[in-house]
Design a protein that fits this description.
By secondary structure, the chain is mainly alpha-helical. Helix content is 73%, strand content 0%. It has 16 helices and no strands. The longest helix has 37 residues, at 13-49. Bound molecules: heme C.
Amino acid sequence: MDFLDNLVLPQSAHHMVLLKYLLVLTYILLIPYLSVLLGSLGLSLFFERKTDKNENYYRFAKELIDQITFNKSVSFALGVVPLISSAFCYAQLLHLTGLNVSEYILISVLFLIISLILIYTYKYTFHLKDIFTFASRKVGISDPLPVELPSYQIKTSSLHKKSGLYGLLFLIVTIYLFIASIQLAGDSSNWSVKNNLIGLIFSLKAFVYFLQFIVASFALTSALILYKYFRADSVSLDDAEYLNMIKNFSLKLGSVATIILPLLIILNVMVKPQDSFSFDVFGYALLALIVVLCIVILFYVMLKESSAKFASLLIYLFVVLFTFLIIKDQYAFDTSTKKQFAILAANYEGYQKKVKEEFGLGTEVINGADIYNGKCIACHQFDRKLVGPPYQEVLPKYEGKRDALVQFVLNPVKVNPEYPPMPNQGLKPKEAEAVVDYLISTYVK
Ligand code: HEC
């Protein structure tokens, strides 16, 4: 897939910095979105399986998936678009490394699209299933229902199960591939391994980051559920039993996830390549840990009081946490790829020169008169003899022989015994031509 490389325009160092900012912004949209998608789908599938135990579980499973799939354009804007733009950022940033990072990310875009289609199928078949269940309860009561109904019902039910499960599978593959790709991008010491897909997939760094991602997903999702159902202004008239079930579950899940999270953040920093360590990386990791600690405390207090009073505050803290983690990773990427950016900056200078030449904007303008006034005038006048002969005398010899004159200026040889030899003036071919043209045109006048 060389087409991406063809799209790359060499960037100046300033543009590269802008691209990195763009990457950070992209991730601030993408990573929380993928986290919540994964968390909601995972929980929805989990609760649907336990439906026999409690009718409320079924309802919760349905609401979870409805909440995350409320709008297709949002899925596109927060998932697909940022993922594609991160592929293009990496194509620019990793230009000339021969790495396939952008291609891998584009493949993960494909997986994400498939996964989204499956997730929406899961959601719609959820609704369809309800209709069937409702209809089959009515059998015999009013008009007879179509005889195919039971078979439709079975088919829908199986499609529903499959789409949910495969949707989750594709989503996990999307996330893992994306994570593995950005880990490779940020690990310049491993670039020699190049596009070893197996090595990419079974890398410890990718695995640890993935674990962190999963745990953070569930932590964020439980905070969002608490916010959604219990924020101060959402006065709910819903039945208390249902809400209680949600509250207890989310509080427990959130607490467990946020207690594990700091360990994974530390582990994640520990397995980072040595050459990506910097003050900023540690600084932001530390800040992230402090925020996680605050979140843990909030969860603990809420769990003890069995209330969801800090739900809104939690959301703010999670936004800050994700931002810190993303900035930390971007700094690590930055430090590890310093050499690459020096290469790109040098490449850009070469590119700029080439473009200027193409458009006749040579880097410096060679001026014959300047060279004459700077060098030749010390020994030559047009009409008078100085150290060297007057041009009036010698130029007629060269009429129609511009090349020979250029040759002489570049490489003076002994000509006239009356004069000492002319020292080489050390001109470049272009400069010699320019000064010769100047002499000829002045002489003609
Ligand atoms: C240090 C003094 C000196 C400088 C500076 C100098 N020349 Fe000369 N030039 C000479 C001398 C001496 C001769 C005569 C050499 C000979 O006849 O062998 C000469 C000869 C020439 C001739 C006549 C060659 C011929 O076939 O008779 C040309 C043309 C000429 N110079 C061009 C230039 C140009 C153009 C520059 C400036 C880029 C320049 N020179 C700078 C000393 C100088």
